[in-house]
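Milestone M4 deliverable, item 7.
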Amino acid sequence: MLKGKTALVTGSTSGIGLATARALAQDGANIVINGFGDKAAIEAERAGLEKDFGIKAIYSAADMSKPAEIAEMVATAEKTFGALDVLVNNAGIQFVANIEDFPPEKWDAIIAINLSSAFHSIRAAMPSMKKRKWGRIINIASAHGLVASPQKVAYVAAKHGLVGLSKVVALESANDGVTCNAICPGWVLTPLVQKQIDDRTKASGKSVREEEIALLSEKQPMHQFTKPEGIGALAVFLCSDGAASITGSAYSIDGGWVAQ
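Output delivered:
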């Protein structure tokens, strides 16, 4: 379906971003990956995309807190592949503290990377998408884009903002062949979450599965994690012809978290 098209996924050297990049590559898209990490590991992932799916893949080290680097990354994608058809804004960071203890520099960094970076990438990519009358923009938000939790003031604000950004972009591009939607995951089993479970297991003496259920049930009725591959599959669907009229929506993939 995406053969001959190009997708840029920010924050895609691991986790949700990498799984989404692989899902889009499996569907035929050329890929621009982006993010930080070990250079050798990143190159192995980039080469793996090409080997596994027979597509072309490049890497951008653009810092998502720097608008000029974001614009240059989009321009490089367009120059390298002739067009940028799919933009997935996934880059994100987290910090946890009560608001009175929340360092202002952490607020600034989270808003910059989790929210403002999406504005800058969409702003850069939109003119060409509108000109070609085809584009798919997907913002990886969170259940925290729809509901709140304590001690996550910057993250919740940024993710709520990302859902709102998606709606505005959808309205502005409604008749230009461009759609914009948000995906709102709940608990995803990332290395950081796995560490939380391991720490809880050591402290309580309970089994890993008992601690998984305890952690999940704090928010989710469903006692299983969302898989990164499931988020990637949803992103692929949102790029499909079947989703051509789906725009301005926030898709929960959260085990029932926000249904409560």
